[in-house]
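Re: folding output
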Amino acid sequence: MIAEALFEGGLGSPNVHYYSATRHFMHRDEDHIMQYKDKLHREIPEKVQRCQHSMFIFDEMDKMPPNLIDTIKPFVEENMRVDGIDYRKAIFLFLSNTAASPIIDRALELRKGGDNRKSFVLKDFEQIIIKNALGEEPWCPNLRIEGLRRTAMGNYHKTEIHDDRPVYKHEKNKLYLFFKGNIWRVAREQVDSAPASMILEDRVMRLEESKKYWKVLMDGNWEEVPEVQVICLDAPPAGGPNVCTKIKSYPCTETFIEEQNVTCWLFWTCTSQSTVQRKTTCSQTQYTCCDGFTQLGSECVKGTGLWQAELLSHNLVNHVVPFLPLEREQVEMCVRDVLLEKGLGHMITPVSGTFYNYVRTVKDKKVRDCRLYPLLT
C-alpha cells in the first residue's frame, strides 16, 4: 500500500527494492554472510544515488542474521552524508512476525471488552511489542533525567501504572513524571491542571529510547532543550559476566564559582565571587549486556531475537506499527477492491454491503479461477 501510494508502478517500480530473508539471505555461514553484506553495501548506495526516495523492504527481518541486519545501520543513521550520498530521504521498511501471536491475542481481548477495532491505539500494543519483539521489559523501573541544573533533574522511581503508562516520582522533590493526554509531563501533581515544568510529546516506545526533545519552561516560555537526557538506571552491574561498558557523552550545563580581583577602596584589591553557568560536555559510564546477550534480572544471558540488531538497540527505527488481524468489514473491503480491479464492480450488491451479498453476486469464472470465491466460502 505504501509503494502503491508513493510510486508509479507500485511494487513494480524500479525504485522499490524487496529483500526476503528466507529467499535472498537463506544461508547463515560466514562466507555467504560476507557475500550478502557486500551485496547490500553495493546495491543500496547505487539505488539511492539513482533515486533519493528509494524504498527498501526487508521481509522476515527476524530471520536475518543480526550481523547482517547491522550492515544496514550506516544507511539509516541521521548522518548528512555517507561516502557523499544522502540517505535521509530513502525509506527502509522492516517486516517481522515476531510478535504476531501476542498482537492477535491482545486485539481479541480488546474486542471482547467491547472496544471497536477503529478505536485501537498504539499504546494498547506497545508493551507487547517491546517485550516480544525487542526482548525488553516494557518500562524502566528507575529513570534519571539529566542535562540541566533544575529541580526536575535527578532520579525517578516507578510508583504505579496509570493509563497503561508508568508514573514516576522524584526521589527527593515532590515531582511526578507521568503521562496525560498525549504528552509526558513533569509536575507537582498528577492532574491536567498542574503547572508543568517539562513536557515531552508522546513518542513510540520507552521514554529513554530514541532522540527526543523535551520542552522546558524557561523564563515563562517553552523552549526545546536537546540537552535533556532520560537514562534507564536498571542496568547490569559493573564487572559482571558478559557486561560491556561504554562512555556516553552529552551536552549539559555546569555551575561553578568564578573569582576575580576588583578595586574595593583606593589602592586596596579585593576578591569577588560570582556564580556562573556555562554549557559543557558531561560523560557517564554505562554498563550494558554485550552483543548477543540480553539482560535477565541482574544477569546478562545468551539470547536470540530481533532485539540483538543494532538498528533497535541504537534506536534507529522511527516508527513501530503493529499489524492487526482483519475483521469481516476489512475482508469485505478487500473483496470489493479485487472486484473493482477486475472490472467487476457492477457485481457488487450495494444494498446492505454484507459479506454474503458479495459472495452471492460473484459469478464470473475468472474470479473463481483466481480462487477468490472458494476462499470466501
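--- second protein (sequence, then structure) ---
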Amino acid sequence: MIAYLKGWSTKKDSFFASVAKAAGGGKGLPLIPLSFHGFPESDARAKAAMAVAKRQPKSALVRMLKFRLIWAQYNGARRYFTRHPDRIAMCWNGITGSRRVFMEGARDAGVPRLYGELAPFPGRMQLDPKGVNALSSVPRDPGFFTAWAAGRADRQGDAWRAMGANLTARLSRRADVRQVEADLSDEPFLFVPLQVPNDSQITMFGGWTGSVAGMIAALAEASEALPEGWHIRIKEHPSAKTSLAEPLTRAMSIAQGRLRIDNQTDTFAQVRASRGVVTINSSVGLQSFFYDTPVIVLGEAFFALPGLVRVAGDQTALHAAMAEAESLAFDPVLRAAFMNYLDQVHFPHVSESPDGTIEIDQNAAVQRIKAAKTAVGH
C-alpha cells in the first residue's frame, strides 16, 4: 500500500491515486502526523528542511515556531512509517520544508519512497524513487546512454521528438511577460530564459551563480567575450513574483548593449531563433533539444552532461563559452540516446481527463514501485 501526502489539487491527488491503484491500494494523508518526542536525527533533519523552505520566516519567533512544527512533522512521519513498514511513502516534489521531512522520516523508518512532480514534456510526469529534477535517478554518465542505445535502432533514432509535438510556452501570470510570435532572425544571439528566483531548482541547485540575480550579473560580465555583433537576450519567467528590475538594469549598464530584455516574444520563438540557450537548470534548456539548439548549463541539472550540453562551472568557463558562441555544438548521437531514454524509460506516460484528473500508465507505475522497493532492499 502507498501512503501519500495529499497535494490538495485534482491533478496531484488523482495522480497519487492512480499510482496507488498500481500498488494495490493507497491512503491519502491530509496532514503530516505530529510527534513531539524526538529522535537523534530530528534537529538535523528539521534544520536542513528549514534552510531550503520556500517561505522563510522574517521574525525569530515565527522561525522558532516553524522549526518546531517541521521538527514534530519529521518525528510524526517517522513514527507513522515505523508503525506501517509495509507502506510506500509518496509525495509531491519532496525537496523542501515539510514535505522534505515527511520523506526523510519515511527514509529513516526504512520504507520505500516515491517522488512525484511535473515533467518537462506534455503527457508525462515524474515518478522516481530517488528524487525529482536534479535529484532524479537519471544516470550522470554520458557513456551509460550510448551503451544503452548501442545496437538498438529504436534507441538511436528520432522517436523521442514526438514528446515535443505539443510543447507550448508557459502561460503568463504577468501582464508584462507575454508569448507573442515574432521574427528574430536578423541578429545572432544567445537566449536566456530566467527561472523563478525562489524555486528550489535555484535555491538548492543553482550552482556557482548562487541565484537568478547572480546569473544575470555573471552574464553581464561575460558578455564582453561575445563575438562582434552578438548579444544576450533575456526573458523573465512568466510566473516570477520577485522583481528583477534592479539586477537587470545594473547588468544592462555593464553589458553596454550586449544584453537585451525581451519579455514579449514567445519563449520557443526565441529558442528557435537563437544560436544557443543559457540556463542554470531550466526545463527550457532541455526542451531546446527539440530545436537542435546548443545549450550552456551553469547549475546542477540531470541533463548537465558533457557532449549533451556545454557545462560552464565557473565565470572563466562562462567567458570561454561566450567567446566560442559561433562554434557552440553538441553530440547528436548522445542527445538521441539520452532523449530516447527519457522517452522510453524515465518519464512515464499519463493521460489527463477534461476534469483535470491524471491517470498514469499502470505498467510504468508498477516498475517505479518495484524500483522503490529494490532501493531499500524490500
